[in-house]
Design a protein that fits this description.
Length: 74
């Protein structure tokens, strides 16, 4: 069963991290710039590592151009 989570993204930081802020809310800080989907891909990688799943199991549902995104993790 898939899990949906909201992620607030902080791009262009020095140190990447994931922090839980609620039942299904997280903050993800990534080094990548928010250009050409680079930050979205970096967030997906960080989420996959955090939840112990393959990158292919993490899908961006909505929020491609927003700091608040909805991800689905299979």
């Amino acid at each position: 069963m898939a899990m949906k989570i909201f992620v607030r993204v902080k791009p262009k930081v020095k140190k990447e991290f994931m922090r839980r802020e609620g039942e299904n809310k997280f903050v993800a800080a990534v080094r990548a710039a928010p250009e050409g989907g680079k930050a979205n891909e970096a967030v997906a990688r960080v989420l996959a590592k955090h939840f112990g799943v393959r990158r292919a199991q993490v899908r961006l549902v909505s929020g491609r151009a927003s700091r608040l995104k909805l991800f689905e993790i299979a």
